[in-house]
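Ticket #4471: complex job returned nothing on first submit. Input attached below:
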Amino acid sequence: MTRRVVITGIGCISALGNTAAEFWAACLAGKSGIGPLSGFDMTGIRFQNGAQARGFDASRHFDDKQLIPLDRFAQLAVVAAREALAHSGLELTPEQRTRAAIVTGSCYGGKTSEDAGFSAIYRDGQSRVHPMTIPRLMANAGASALTLELSWQGPVWTVSTACSSANHAIGQAFWLVRHGLADVALTGGSEAPFTYGSMKAWEALRVVSPDTCRPFSKGRTGMVIGEGAAMLVLEPLDHAVARGAKILAEIAGFGMGADAHHLTQPSAEGAARTIRLALADAGLAPEAVGVVNAHGTGTAANDVTESAAIREVFAANLSSLLVSATKSMHGHALGASGALEAVATVLGLHHQCVVPVANFQAPDPECDVPVCLEQRPFAHEAAISNSFAFGGLNAVLALRHSGQ
Amino acid sequence: MSESVSPDVLERVLRTLADTQKLPLEKVTADSTFEDLGIDSLDGINILFALENEFDINIPDESARLVRDIRQLAEGVQKLINEKAAPPAPAA
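Support reply: We reran it on our side without changes. The output follows.
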């Protein structure tokens, strides 16, 4: 069984706002959510900026009892999923819930809870940690909270592949629905990485910008860490049509592969091969793709390598292609990034426009790709959304206009 | 302006580098290039970390990015050690 799979609902929380609508308005305006980090200790850390979901207030979404087992990253997952489901209008019978899947991505899991527990015993001399520390920190805590809340009983799991986590999750949820292993899926990613210890670890890796994220730009100085969550509702095309759902875009294909090259240095060959796998899975020619939502981290290494991969795959249609990189606005939300970028790509297809790369200063000859620098109406049939993780783990989604 | 590197600092830089890279000390000289020693960007981060611990200094990302060879690395370390001993006067 093979079915066409469409997206009928989206939800997201990020530095760009508490809803998909706020996210999209900021993306259209090229408004970056990057700024000084606050609310936790950043003393002595070489970078001070990040992309925090400042507007998120858990108490507006959960009562005190509900919050006991929920780390911030799981709270974000649940709230984004509620928005996506409400948006889709999907309602399932108890029978249908047994064939409803949830596949989430997260790099860190409940880092905030782990950090708080370990600070208490290592630093503060306390003798015990909170009994919910393990359920809060497990990387699947978001997926588990969702199955409990929604009573969905189909395949539920979490993928953790660093910065590709959400793309791997969405790709697998897509394949489940396409091949009839589940009838609907809720999928995406969530991340809440802001703790002192975690920021010290990023500082030591020397890839974080002291300033802001400038993908593909000359003078870029690294990535900027973000937090947030995005969730998408997937269902078969005929199911969506039968219930009169609004179709935002189709997931046409997914590709995943590994560089087998280097722990932190990406490979253009690996990226290009994975993009081609996604296009082949979608049955799309490179010429059908109008927009690349790039991984675009703003690091020296990624942007050069990704540019080379884009130039190779899209050599024939480079002049009619636009490259977008929304991390310039929502930061690098690690395991949630692919989901935030998928939402941006879906909305770009739905509204037939391309959002600008923020913070761009000047072209870099080493990143010779057509970077989108202002919001543009753009008629395109298909778009891809790239995620490339440390360890050389690549995941690329190919999305197509819904035709609606 | 290049910093004059004391023999002691140079020796400790070379030893730290050899330790981090698991290389015999005699293979590492001030004139070795990173390519000679098979040092890539990830090794570079580990070496900077080890040097920060060895000399109790903080090596800024921007200066680290400019280092092209081991002599420059040693000069940079010496500069940071000197600054730690006599901090530059604050600008008015």
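Residues 11 and 29 of chain B are 9 Å apart (CA to CA). Closing as resolved unless it happens again.
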